[in-house]
Amino acid sequence: MKQNHILLVVIDAQRAFVDPAGSLARAFGFDEVRPAVTALSRLRAFLTERSSDARIVLVRSEYHPGQFTGGQLDHPLADLCVPSRNIDCEWAEGLDTSRASAIVTKHHANATEAAAYREVIDQAIGNGARQIVFVGFQFTTCVRASALTTLDLVGSRGVRVAVAEGLTGSRTSSYRPTRDGLSRVEFTRRELQESGVAVVGEFDEAV
After folding, report:
1. Which of 27, 36, 97, 193 is 20 to 30 A from 134 (CA-CA)?
2. What is the number of structural domains in the chain?
3. Bridge partner residues of 8 (DSSP)
4. Whole-angstrom distance, CA of residue 166 vs CA of residue 35
């Protein structure tokens, strides 16, 4: 597939989710973010070596205090990606942002709630995009929500949506089975696939 036919959407490649000093690691320990750190290493290499394979959009988060803690401000995640409170909003170390054709800031887990994101998607489709591939952090939350709702936006326009899981991170605890026997990662994978979002291991499998 030609380069202008593929849009790579990188969700939340920020220090909050992959850095020892980010909110997740400080709240739950570095082991909780190890899978995301591994995914980041692959993602950095991909963006350096394979950036010509797709147009790239970087989506970053800025939230308000207590947004994901029910307003509880003494919770370890109360300042998750809150600007100026910590290092969370900074790009992950070594990420080459210069290769992005657009950078969008979102204020909710779901990127499609940002008008700027919807405009970027519309523009990409107008310029010939026929495949949108998601990578980034976290697979079970922001990547999931953004992929599903993007499919709602573009599915009727002949555009395919996929998640390249090898370039997508999850928390260590998300791989552990829950009471129903499925981990959050497996549940998310099944939900995406059943909704029409392809889940593949590597970028090449998506295109």
Report:
1. 27
2. 1
3. 56, 133
4. 10
pLDDT at 49: 87
Range of the domain at 75: 3-206
pLDDT of 15 over the 80 cut: yes
For residue 102, give both structure tokens: 């657009």
The CATH number of residue 165's host domain is 3.40.50.850
Please list the residues that pair with 189 across neighbouring strands.
Answer: none
Whether 119 and 104 have beta carbons less than 8 Å apart is answered as no
- The DSSP line for 121-184 is HHHHHHTT--EEEEEEE-IIIIIHHHHHHHHHHHGGGT-EEEEEEEEEE--GGGGSB-TTS-BH
Residue 134's φ and ψ, nearest 5 degrees, are: -100, 140
φ, ψ of residue 160 in degrees (nearest 5): -90, 150
Spatial contact of 23 and 88, defined as CB atoms under 8 Å apart: yes
Distance of alpha carbon 67 from alpha carbon 162, whole angstroms: 28
